[in-house]
Amino acid sequence: MATTKAGSGKAARPAYRCAECGWTTSKWVGRCGECQAWGTVDVAGGERAAGRTAAAAVTRPAVPIGQVLTEEARAVTSGIPELDRVLGGGVVPGAVLLMAGEPGVGKSTLLLEAAARWARAGRRTLYVSGEESAAQVRLRAERMDAVADELYLAAETDLGALLTHVEQVQPSLLIVDSVQTIGSADVDGVPGGVTQVREVAAAVIGRAKTANIATLLVGHVTKDGSVAGPRVLEHLVDVVLQFEGDRASRLRLLRAVKNRFGPVDEIGCFDLTSDGIVEVPDPTGLFVSRHEQPVAGTCVTVTMEGRRPLLAEVQALTVAATSGGNPRRTSSGLDGQRVAMILAVLTKHVNVPVQQLDVYTASVGGARLVEPSVDLATAVALASAVSDRPCPTDLVAIGEVGLAGEVRPVRELGARLREASRIGFKRAIVPAGSDLTGVPPSLTVAKVGDVATAVRAALS
């Protein structure tokens, strides 16, 4: 009779899976071999073989798409028009929003203001703080005048306790500040870890969808500005908001990085004060510095942030190179690659000598100008700085610059020119072939086909 040698059978080795991309390996590694993420590889325990999942009861039967009720997905105003603009009209019941931003930028202040305005409309709100005590949040609410009867406050760091609060309060708006501070006793790891964040987010999102609760989650960011935790967190939520601003400035900008219910190119402007946060419905003047006398190296343009035209000033400074054969190229608020391209175009097609000059370019007021329509204003500002000839203070330049030196048309030119005329500008330089329908008669418009012509028209 055949016998089996003792110890000849080997125990099955556990498999390891990356929580970010699903990559599997037979042994544990600290860094995923597929997406290169650190700390995301863990034991893939409790997995069933493919095709073994049994059928289960459905939560609600499938119906023809024409019979699906849409009232539950209607957006409800948050009480903050600038926030509603970014969200595409308001907060959708049952939607889960993730707001990320650097420490101290004002995320908690903005969400506490939103919670107070939501509660003042007679809608119950639950604010769960995992970073501050209830007394600390109450003091900030008093300073902001954000105390409301329907605003409930809890300080919790346990996921089970958070869900219990939701069951007891039955809110229509839930705010969790922040998702990295909440932990679950049923999952290994510390709060803020990949496994914990994934478990907390899944539980909160599941509760929000089943109870139709609009939910706002605060998320921390890493050194490079991305949302901390597993990337799957951004896939699970409906909206990802980025709250940004310079600590030296009170201006704060809210952008939608992902939005299932509206556009992702709108921005909301806020002013962070000692008494709270205030909306800035007309932020154009914040990005333009008015000079009493013309100053060389400056030019104003009009950029589009979603459907909102914003005037912004581009500034340039050129000085003799001090580092030998390697002139410095520094940009703040502008795309450094596009500035380098414009410098090359000016050298080749306009004969502007910038090869041996240190070049510094910046936007005013902390504006981030990435739209190609800013190219022409950047070229005019650089040419003005090199020649020390100022650009007129009542002129705006709008257009995209190509490598051949041509000036290309841009979208929504009529809206841009109307905004410039409303602010008080009298002249504009635009690409040739642009449609000037609806342009105010008080605005003198010059069409140009190339950068050389635009520079001559601006500096003559």
UniProtKB/TrEMBL annotation:
<dbReference type="Pfam" id="PF18073">
    <property type="entry name" value="Zn_ribbon_LapB"/>
</dbReference>
<feature type="short sequence motif" description="RadA KNRFG motif">
    <location>
        <begin position="258"/>
        <end position="262"/>
    </location>
</feature>
<keyword id="KW-0479">Metal-binding</keyword>
<comment type="function">
    <text>Plays a role in repairing double-strand DNA breaks, probably involving stabilizing or processing branched DNA or blocked replication forks.</text>
</comment>
<keyword id="KW-0863">Zinc-finger</keyword>
<comment type="function">
    <text>DNA-dependent ATPase involved in processing of recombination intermediates, plays a role in repairing DNA breaks. Stimulates the branch migration of RecA-mediated strand transfer reactions, allowing the 3' invading strand to extend heteroduplex DNA faster. Binds ssDNA in the presence of ADP but not other nucleotides, has ATPase activity that is stimulated by ssDNA and various branched DNA structures, but inhibited by SSB. Does not have RecA's homology-searching function.</text>
</comment>
<dbReference type="InterPro" id="IPR020588">
    <property type="entry name" value="RecA_ATP-bd"/>
</dbReference>
<dbReference type="InterPro" id="IPR041166">
    <property type="entry name" value="Rubredoxin_2"/>
</dbReference>
<dbReference type="InterPro" id="IPR014721">
    <property type="entry name" value="Ribsml_uS5_D2-typ_fold_subgr"/>
</dbReference>
<keyword id="KW-0862">Zinc</keyword>
<dbReference type="Pfam" id="PF13481">
    <property type="entry name" value="AAA_25"/>
</dbReference>
<feature type="binding site">
    <location>
        <begin position="101"/>
        <end position="108"/>
    </location>
    <ligand>
        <name>ATP</name>
    </ligand>
</feature>
<keyword id="KW-0378">Hydrolase</keyword>
<protein>
    <recommendedName>
        <fullName>DNA repair protein RadA</fullName>
    </recommendedName>
</protein>
<dbReference type="InterPro" id="IPR003593">
    <property type="entry name" value="AAA+_ATPase"/>
</dbReference>
<feature type="region of interest" description="Lon-protease-like">
    <location>
        <begin position="358"/>
        <end position="460"/>
    </location>
</feature>
<keyword id="KW-0067">ATP-binding</keyword>
<comment type="similarity">
    <text>Belongs to the RecA family. RadA subfamily.</text>
</comment>
<dbReference type="Pfam" id="PF13541">
    <property type="entry name" value="ChlI"/>
</dbReference>
<keyword id="KW-0227">DNA damage</keyword>
<feature type="domain" description="RecA family profile 1">
    <location>
        <begin position="72"/>
        <end position="221"/>
    </location>
</feature>
<keyword id="KW-0234">DNA repair</keyword>
<dbReference type="InterPro" id="IPR027417">
    <property type="entry name" value="P-loop_NTPase"/>
</dbReference>
<keyword id="KW-0547">Nucleotide-binding</keyword>
<dbReference type="InterPro" id="IPR004504">
    <property type="entry name" value="DNA_repair_RadA"/>
</dbReference>
<keyword id="KW-0346">Stress response</keyword>
<dbReference type="InterPro" id="IPR020568">
    <property type="entry name" value="Ribosomal_Su5_D2-typ_SF"/>
</dbReference>
<keyword id="KW-0238">DNA-binding</keyword>
